[in-house]
């Protein structure tokens, strides 16, 4: 818990220390759920810090396997979202799309608006990179509304990324069109936003083929 708190206030060094100490203990205890959570947190934090000495993708990949072993859909969704983000930042858009799509399907089944807000933002970043900018802005608007409803917070580095994404979309669409797309998105329900994101994901799949 201390590691998560330190991460959210931007104290990456302290957070990493807490996670690493816990990891030493949990590797001895054979609790796959807690180990999945910790590996996910440690790997994602290393990714945020751009710490090349820590194999972030491998750690989170291990967490995915452990999460699937537990059968807990909430944990599977959490760690897959981290992996998708790492993959996207490595320009592996195909894998990121597949994992965000799986996450969105799980979140819809769970009715988890908190988790959905993060996933919709992730898919929006992918759509910007793949030039479906208007849909991306709608999804960012939907994510913003969900955050207001749930109190979901972004880590400081993610705030910076999302702000840049919004600035990029305004350059492409223009302020008026971007505002209209944001407004449409903000009026979507969580289920509508998931459906819109999955539809866009399927279109990306077709365009790759």
Describe the structure.
The chain is mainly alpha-helical and 209 residues long. It has 2 domains: 1-90, Serine Threonine Protein Phosphatase 5, Tetratricopeptide repeat (Alpha Horseshoe); 101-209, no CATH class. Helices cover 84% and strands 0% of the residues. The chain is built from 11 helices and no strands. α3 runs parallel beside α5 (73-89) and α5 runs parallel beside α7.
Which helices and strands, and how do they pair?
Layout (H helix, E strand, L loop, with lengths): L1 H7 L3 H18 L2 H17 L7 H15 L2 H17 L3 H18 L2 H17 L3 H18 L5 H18 L1 H12 L3 H19 L1
Helix pairs in contact: 1-2, 2-3, 3-4, 3-5, 4-5, 5-6, 5-7, 6-7, 6-11, 7-8, 7-11, 8-9, 8-10, 8-11, 9-10
Summary tags:
209 residues; disordered N terminus; mainly alpha; 2 domains; 11 helices; Serine Threonine Protein Phosphatase 5, Tetratricopeptide repeat
Gyration radius over CA: 17 Å
Strand composition percent: under 5%
Please bin the fraction of helical residues.
over 70%
Number of individual domains: 2
| Beta strands, count | 0
Distance between the termini: 44 Å
Task: Please outline what is shown here.
This protein is mainly alpha-helical. It is 84% helix and 0% strand. The relative contact order is 0.09.
């Amino acid at each position: 818990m201390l590691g998560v708190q330190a991460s959210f206030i931007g104290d990456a060094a302290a957070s990493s220390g807490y996670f690493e100490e816990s990891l030493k203990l949990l590797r001895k205890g054979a609790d796959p759920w807690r180990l999945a959570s910790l590996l996910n947190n440690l790997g994602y934090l290393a990714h945020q810090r751009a710490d090349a000495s820590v194999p972030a993708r491998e750690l989170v990949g291990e967490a995915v396997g452990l999460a699937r072993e537990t059968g807990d859909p909430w944990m599977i969704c959490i760690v897959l979202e981290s992996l998708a983000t790492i993959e996207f930042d490595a320009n592996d858009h195909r894998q990121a799309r597949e994992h965000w799509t799986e996450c969105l399907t799980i979140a819809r089944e769970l009715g988890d608006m908190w988790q959905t807000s993060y996933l919709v933002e992730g898919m929006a970043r992918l759509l910007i990179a793949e030039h479906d900018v208007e849909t991306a802005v709608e999804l960012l608007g939907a994510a913003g509304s969900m955050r207001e409803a749930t109190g979901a917070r972004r880590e400081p580095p993610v705030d910076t990324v999302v702000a840049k994404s919004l600035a990029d979309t305004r350059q492409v669409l223009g302020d008026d069109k971007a505002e209209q797309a944001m407004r449409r998105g903000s009026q979507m329900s969580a289920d509508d936003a998931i459906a819109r994101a999955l539809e866009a994901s399927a279109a990306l799949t077709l365009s790759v083929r």
